[in-house]
Specification:
globular; single chain; 4 helices
Length: about 100
C-alpha cells in the first residue's frame, strides 16, 4: 500500500477556522478544539486511503479539480475534497455534505 504526503491548501485552513468559529458560537471552545483535532485526523487518513477512494462523479466536487475525490467525514456532515499529484494528496476544500449536488 502506497503512503502519500498530505498537503492542505491555505483555503482549507480558512474552512477549518470558520467551522471552529461556528462551533464556538453554538457550544464551547473545547468542543471546537476536539472537532478540529478529529477532522485533522480524518484528513491524515488520506495518507493511505487516497488510492482506494474513487474519483467523484459530482460536478460540485469536480469543480475543485478535474480528478477530485471526496472523503465523507465520520459524522457525514462534511466532505473533504482532494486530489492526488504524484506522491502527494492535496486537500482542496472542505464543504458541507448538503452542498454536494450533481
Amino acid at each position: 500500500m502506497k503512503e502519500y504526503k498530505v498537503k492542505i491548501l491555505d483555503t482549507v485552513f480558512d474552512d477549518i477556522d470558520s467551522l471552529a468559529d461556528f462551533i464556538v458560537s453554538v457550544s464551547l471552545p473545547e468542543h471546537a478544539v476536539k472537532y478540529v483535532r478529529e477532522l485533522g485526523a480524518e484528513i491524515m487518513t488520506l495518507r493511505y486511503l487516497a488510492d482506494v477512494i474513487p474519483q467523484s462523479r459530482y460536478r460540485t466536487v469536480l469543480h475543485y479539480h478535474p480528478h477530485a475525490k471526496q472523503l465523507r467525514t465520520r459524522n457525514k456532515q462534511f466532505n473533504i475534497i482532494f486530489h492526488i499529484e504524484g506522491d502527494t494528496v492535496i486537500v482542496d476544500k472542505i464543504i458541507a455534505s448538503k452542498m454536494i449536488i450533481n
